[in-house]
From TrEMBL:
<feature type="transmembrane region" description="Helical">
    <location>
        <begin position="20"/>
        <end position="45"/>
    </location>
</feature>
<feature type="transmembrane region" description="Helical">
    <location>
        <begin position="208"/>
        <end position="227"/>
    </location>
</feature>
<dbReference type="GO" id="GO:0033214">
    <property type="term" value="P:siderophore-iron import into cell"/>
</dbReference>
<feature type="transmembrane region" description="Helical">
    <location>
        <begin position="292"/>
        <end position="310"/>
    </location>
</feature>
<keyword id="KW-0812">Transmembrane</keyword>
<feature type="transmembrane region" description="Helical">
    <location>
        <begin position="322"/>
        <end position="341"/>
    </location>
</feature>
<feature type="transmembrane region" description="Helical">
    <location>
        <begin position="164"/>
        <end position="188"/>
    </location>
</feature>
<comment type="similarity">
    <text>Belongs to the binding-protein-dependent transport system permease family. FecCD subfamily.</text>
</comment>
<keyword id="KW-1003">Cell membrane</keyword>
<dbReference type="InterPro" id="IPR037294">
    <property type="entry name" value="ABC_BtuC-like"/>
</dbReference>
<feature type="transmembrane region" description="Helical">
    <location>
        <begin position="253"/>
        <end position="280"/>
    </location>
</feature>
<dbReference type="GO" id="GO:0022857">
    <property type="term" value="F:transmembrane transporter activity"/>
</dbReference>
<feature type="transmembrane region" description="Helical">
    <location>
        <begin position="137"/>
        <end position="157"/>
    </location>
</feature>
<protein>
    <submittedName>
        <fullName>Ferric enterobactin transporter FepG</fullName>
    </submittedName>
</protein>
<keyword id="KW-1133">Transmembrane helix</keyword>
<dbReference type="Pfam" id="PF01032">
    <property type="entry name" value="FecCD"/>
</dbReference>
<dbReference type="InterPro" id="IPR000522">
    <property type="entry name" value="ABC_transptr_permease_BtuC"/>
</dbReference>
């Protein structure tokens, strides 16, 4: 039997009749990010005003140990951990798809208006229309509306990366103004109820939107990984990608749809967490290398970033809590400035 050598930096894994080509650096990078995520999750359960040691928090997680520890871990910190894990993963995946789709590292759900659209419609569901409309459902509608507007005005997804970004910024600015108008004109109680969706917070998130986000992410993540493999070919000109057998238009529409479905419910749960979708894919590329589209590692990096930011927001200025959206903006803002002031435009490799 002739042994076919694997390309440099990869390994062939054979399982019966199935052969899988695994990039070594990407596999190691995903493993490291997964380990870092475990550490961030342990810190989220252990660190806070009421300090609970790692072993005690692990015992409290399964309902064993001191009653106060069980209350703090299961009732207060575990729901935040679940929300942060899902929101960070969804935003990281969405950002990776958007950046690759537009061939531009600035193209994220925040910079092309998807976050603003989801926020505007979620706030409207609280302060402007019947309360029977769930903010998560309205956020998905708002995200799809913003994406459709940016796509139509830019002349097609991925046809011009910077044009797509600039048009998205304009759409986001308009929708952001709508959000501010709704909050200003709303009664004080309604404005207070909608405020977490406008600033970004994981505190006391309703269980139903978190569950819906988890179900949606479970369905979208495998599809996003598959679409990510196809997006690798779109780094070439469209004619070359089509020659390789890629249905260019269908792949772009699928990537955009998955980015919207991930970002909309994530914003409905955690609000517009500033620049997570910008930083997470870049961190994934640094760890896993430029080969391929790092959809899974971007999700892991996004979850790590959100959990660490939420833990820092709860503890740094305790007993005052800094919303996680402000913390992620502080972290991502300098990176965005550096990206804009780079000597030349940076495109995806």
């Amino acid at each position: 039997m002739t042994t076919i050598p694997s390309p440099a930096g990869t390994r062939l894994l054979r399982l019966r009749n199935l052969t899988v080509l695994v990039p070594v650096r990407a596999a190691v990078g995903c493993t490291l990010l997964a380990a870092l995520l475990v550490v961030a999750a342990a810190a989220a359960l252990s660190v806070g005003t009421a300090s609970v040691g790692p072993l005690r928090s692990l015992a409290a997680l399964v309902g064993v140990g001191d009653a106060a520890d069980v209350l703090v871990v299961q009732r207060l910190r575990l729901p935040r951990l679940q929300a942060g894990l899902l929101v960070g993963t969804a935003l990281g995946v969405s950002g990776c798809l958007m950046q690759t789709l537009a061939r531009n590292r600035l193209a994220t759900p925040g910079t092309v208006g998807i976050d603003d659209g989801a926020t505007a419609f979620a706030v409207a569901s609280v302060v402007g229309v019947s309360t029977s409309l769930l903010p998560s459902g309205m956020a998905l509608v708002g995200a799809a509306t913003a994406a459709a507007l940016a796509l139509a005005l830019a002349g097609g997804a991925g046809t011009s990366g910077y044009r797509f970004v600039v048009v998205g910024l304009g759409v986001g600015a308009v929708l952001g103004a709508v959000t501010n108008l709704l909050l200003v004109r709303a009664p004080i109680d309604a404005a207070n109820a909608a405020f977490p969706w406008a600033v970004g917070s994981l505190n006391a998130r309703p269980a139903l939107p978190v569950t819906l986000l988890g179900v949606g992410l479970a369905g979208c993540l495998p599809l996003a990984v598959l679409v990510g493999h196809r997006l690798t070919a779109l780094r070439f000109p469209d004619t070359v990608a089509a020659g390789l057998g890629v249905r260019v238009r269908a792949v772009r529409l699928a990537a955009l749809a998955l980015a919207v479905v991930c970002a909309g419910p994530a914003v409905a749960v955690g609000g517009p967490l500033g620049l997570v979708a910008l930083v997470a894919p870049e961190a994934a590329r640094r760890v896993c290398g430029p080969r391929g589209v790092p959809v899974l590692s971007s999700g892991l990096a996004g979850a790590v970033l959100v959990l660490l930011a939420d833990t820092a927001g709860r503890t740094v200025a305790a007993p005052v809590e800094v919303p996680v959206g402000l913390v992620t903006s502080i972290v991502g803002g300098p990176y965005l400035v550096w990206l804009l002031l780079s000597s030349r435009p940076r495109r995806l490799p």
